[in-house]
TrEMBL record:
<dbReference type="InterPro" id="IPR030382">
    <property type="entry name" value="MeTrfase_TRM5/TYW2"/>
</dbReference>
<dbReference type="Pfam" id="PF25133">
    <property type="entry name" value="TYW2_N_2"/>
</dbReference>
<dbReference type="GO" id="GO:0008175">
    <property type="term" value="F:tRNA methyltransferase activity"/>
</dbReference>
<feature type="domain" description="SAM-dependent methyltransferase TRM5/TYW2-type">
    <location>
        <begin position="334"/>
        <end position="593"/>
    </location>
</feature>
<dbReference type="Pfam" id="PF24681">
    <property type="entry name" value="Kelch_KLHDC2_KLHL20_DRC7"/>
</dbReference>
<dbReference type="InterPro" id="IPR056744">
    <property type="entry name" value="TRM5/TYW2-like_N"/>
</dbReference>
<comment type="pathway">
    <text>tRNA modification; wybutosine-tRNA(Phe) biosynthesis.</text>
</comment>
<protein>
    <recommendedName>
        <fullName>tRNA(Phe) (4-demethylwyosine(37)-C(7)) aminocarboxypropyltransferase</fullName>
        <ecNumber>2.5.1.114</ecNumber>
    </recommendedName>
</protein>
<keyword id="KW-0819">tRNA processing</keyword>
<dbReference type="Pfam" id="PF02475">
    <property type="entry name" value="TRM5-TYW2_MTfase"/>
</dbReference>
<keyword id="KW-0808">Transferase</keyword>
<dbReference type="InterPro" id="IPR015915">
    <property type="entry name" value="Kelch-typ_b-propeller"/>
</dbReference>
<dbReference type="GO" id="GO:0005737">
    <property type="term" value="C:cytoplasm"/>
</dbReference>
<keyword id="KW-0489">Methyltransferase</keyword>
<keyword id="KW-0949">S-adenosyl-L-methionine</keyword>
<dbReference type="GO" id="GO:0102522">
    <property type="term" value="F:tRNA 4-demethylwyosine alpha-amino-alpha-carboxypropyltransferase activity"/>
</dbReference>
<dbReference type="InterPro" id="IPR029063">
    <property type="entry name" value="SAM-dependent_MTases_sf"/>
</dbReference>
Amino acid sequence: MVAYGSKLFMFGGYYGEALGDLYSFDTLTCSWKVEKVGGRSPYARFSHSMFVYKYFIGIIGGCPVTQHCQELTLLDMRSLVWKHVTLSSMDKALFVRSTANVVRDDLIMVGGGAACYAFGTKFSEPMKINLFPLLSLDDHDSSRKLGENEVIKEEEGMMENGNVLLLAPHVGTGSPQHPEMQSLNVENQTGQIDASSWVVKLEKKHAKLGKDILKKFGWLDLERKVYAQEDGLFISFPVTEKFCAIFSEDRFEVLSDHHPSKPFRAESLLLNDMSSSVALDILKEYGATKLPDELVQKRKACKSPLKIMTEAVASLIRQKGLSDKLLEQLPNRWERIGDIVVLPISSFRDPIWNSIGEELWPIIAESLNTCRLARQGRVAANGTRDSTLEILVGDNGWVDHRENGILYSFDATKCMFSWGNLSEKIRMASSDCTDAVIVDLFAGIGYFLLPFLVRAKAKLVYACEWNPHAIEALKRNLEANSVSDRCIVLEGDNQITAPKGVADRVCLGLLPSSEGSWLTAVRALRSNGGILHVHGNVKDTEVELWANHVSKSISEIARSEGHRWEVTIDHVEKVKWYAPHIRHLVADVKCRRI
């Protein structure tokens, strides 16, 4: 949804299927309207991004990602006609739930895709799209392709075509191949200050009039900050490229109604009647000086952790006589678990890194400002799904992680931890579990049972778990959060250890499927029923099919156990994207005796 004028505009959405209508909401009359627009309508979608640029409303990305993901759709608000632009550089992008922000003439796309710490990530790379060429689209040019003659300029780290400039995709704050490249560079390729990085410096006593002049003529850059200099004696105003193009400090013309040796009085000339040439002369007479923006320069001077790491590692491998091509294996993203920085499994793949590990890993740790460094491994293919994280710098893998006011302690080299489940933990924490007895069939380190105990105030939780490393962490966490008196830990296979006929709720937090324990869950509920929280990984096109399967299966199991229950799906929670097109879902299954 975006705002244009006094209206809000909303396109698409999801209601059993992707939607393709454009609605407007008039904030003056508080009324909705289906907009009738000319041209080919955008394809139906959801989880997309919208933005406003000049007189265009833009739509990009969304689901389903297999269709027309390279298309940038624009609604010309002057003619109310849809226009479409194909961006061939987006063929690998996955702009689902991405942020879309317009900075001057650039559309900046960041984020989107799917993320799960335990099971891998699929992010879109950040991208910058120059929108200025789109202003040349005339009313008859409703469909256009940009990027047909695209070439990659390796030395600049940019992909360029005749119409749109795209920032070379990378994640983090730089690129291993081009560490000098930042998300938005300030200097141009000749090392000169960009026209958008200047300020005009005025004495404080002239600042009010100076600001009014700059604002009146659109010369004040509202996207940067005004700041004081020299103990507040001078004020620096960020100015636009337009101002830089016309302002020259050696330009001076005597105003017809006063002499330059006399101080100019603001009241002698009304601001509304002032011409731009007179305004420039006034600024010059008041001693306006054009200078580089100190704030921008300071930001530019700061080195990113990636750049620091790249420079340090480059120096080391050259000392060792190794190839610079090894720098391509440096990571451009990493995770933090507590105070441990975790490098992705794909980094430092060449075995030769291990030969210089004693010198290498401390350098990496220092550049990333951490005392403990680790590298992620694949999830162990065993029943307990152990972590295989490798500690590179540090004594052990025990970490403390606080989330939603709950402390989780665990050995990251033995236990997995998923950041993507936070929304579901918060949802469970907000449940009313007063006087409720809960059975958690896959307790782990306490992912969901701690929110039940600490936040939802459950009366008692039975915690079933068979991973000894997770059990050790679970017991620590129960003590640390002062809830051990309301939890009974049952070690071993839940099909053997789980209690029967005691639960008001049962949590089945196992992925990719918990179906093997549905019978155990039904047996754990009281005779009058209760609620099952059933987790599973499901294709995004099969959500309804999966929900029906859960409901039907639980109903049949209950009947086979002698229960006369009405089984319904109260809610299906979409927790996160587990992988492209695969959702982590939780079905709230209500079982009620009839």
